[in-house]
């Protein structure tokens, strides 16, 4: 069985992320969605809440497990026996950062391949930071995040 890890901050998870999880789950036997610390980002939701939100959003996908990990992504992927790291691409602007991250991870762990999935065009504009901003300023994020996340953004 081929195993993949889909890592990210997911702060919070959006429909764009869910779209990538669905694509990965249709190809791999098992997908671990890993909420991992991005040292360059300020955190909003705590790890447990982020995990809960993703779990609620993808509970219909039976081959998906949602976990929290604090450490190097390649260490987590090795622990899970994953052969691939999944990342989503929205636009060319994502490429440089993703390219650097993929090559760095390959340098540390040549056995694990990074695979990119193109997001659905419906979600190409979406980002967690936009969602947070809209929500904080009282706008509607309907259609951008799953219903359980919308509820959490409104205070649970
Ligand atoms: O959703 P994000 O914030 O773009 O995800 C980035 C993430 C969490 C995958 C990345 O920051 C990461 O892998 N963090 C763990 C630390 C690590 O392994 N760093 C080296 C990879 S370049």
UniProtKB/TrEMBL annotation:
Organism domain of life: Bacteria
Site feature: Transition state stabilizer: 17
Family matches, as SUPFAM superfamilies: Nucleotidylyl transferase (SSF52374)
Catalytic activity: (R)-4'-phosphopantetheine + ATP + H(+) = 3'-dephospho-CoA + diphosphate
Domain Cytidyltransferase-like, chain residue ranges per copy: 5-133
UniProt KW keywords: ATP-binding, Coenzyme A biosynthesis, Cytoplasm, Magnesium, Nucleotide-binding, Nucleotidyltransferase, Transferase
Amino-acid positions noted as binding substrate in the UniProt annotation, renumbered to this chain: 9, 41, 73, 87
Residues that, per the record, bind ATP: 9-10, 17, 88-90, 98, 123-129
Pathway: Cofactor biosynthesis; coenzyme A biosynthesis; CoA from (R)-pantothenate: step 4/5
A cellular component annotation (GO) from this entry: cytoplasm
Chief location: cytoplasm
Primary role: Reversibly transfers an adenylyl group from ATP to 4'-phosphopantetheine, yielding dephospho-CoA (dPCoA) and pyrophosphate.
Subunit structure: Homohexamer.
Official protein name in the record: Phosphopantetheine adenylyltransferase
Organism this protein belongs to: Candidatus Saganbacteria bacterium
Lineage: Bacteria, Bacillati, Saganbacteria
